[in-house]
Amino acid sequence: MDLSAVQKKQQAFIEERGWSEFQTPKNLVMALMVETAELQEIFQWLTPEESWQVRQSPQVLEHVGEEAADVLLYLLHLCGQLNIDLEAAVKDKMQKNALKYPLPAGPA
């Protein structure tokens, strides 16, 4: 997925509708949390086993995909508004995590 292309398309979508004034970092973070909660709601009362069974329901899986897409779109837009290179941030974070959580030592 070309994240910068998605961001450009999303920005055009927003501008065409006159929504730019509402796209503040604060509002985007709030919207991101709402969409994350909507994703969580799908799984809220499922057992761990039932949560895996979501893959067997095309309707529920579609809903999960829609909410996941909303989360990604708001995150991408937030990063765009703040000039954060998300791809670079992800690479950096993964490197930091590898140092913070090294592989366990194998058997001696």
Which properties best describe this structure?
NTP pyrophosphohydrolase, Helix Hairpins, mainly alpha, 5 helices, dCTP_Pyrophosphatase, flat, about 110 residues, DCTPP, about 70% helix
Alpha-beta classification: mainly alpha
Q: What is the 3D shape?
A: flat
Structure summary, number of beta strands: 0
CATH superfamily of the domain at 22-88: MazG-like
The CATH class of the domain at 22-88 = Mainly Alpha
**Architecture (CATH level 2) name of the domain at 22-88:** Orthogonal Bundle
What Rg do the Cα atoms give?
18 Å
Organism: Deinococcus roseus
Pfam families: MazG-like (PF12643)
Protein name: NTP pyrophosphohydrolase
InterPro entries: dCTP_Pyrophosphatase, DCTPP
Please give a structural write-up.
- InterPro entries: dCTP_Pyrophosphatase, DCTPP.
- This is NTP pyrophosphohydrolase.
- With 108 residues, the protein is an all-alpha fold.
- It has a domain at 22-88: Helix Hairpins.
- Helix content is 72%, strand content 0%.
- The protein is built from five helices and no strands.
- It has helices at 3-16, 25-43, 48-53, 58-81, 86-100.
- Helix 1 (3-16) packs across helix 4 (58-81) and helix 2 packs antiparallel against helix 4.
- The longest helix is centred in the middle third of the chain and has 24 residues, at 58-81.
- The termini are far apart.
- The mean pLDDT is 95.
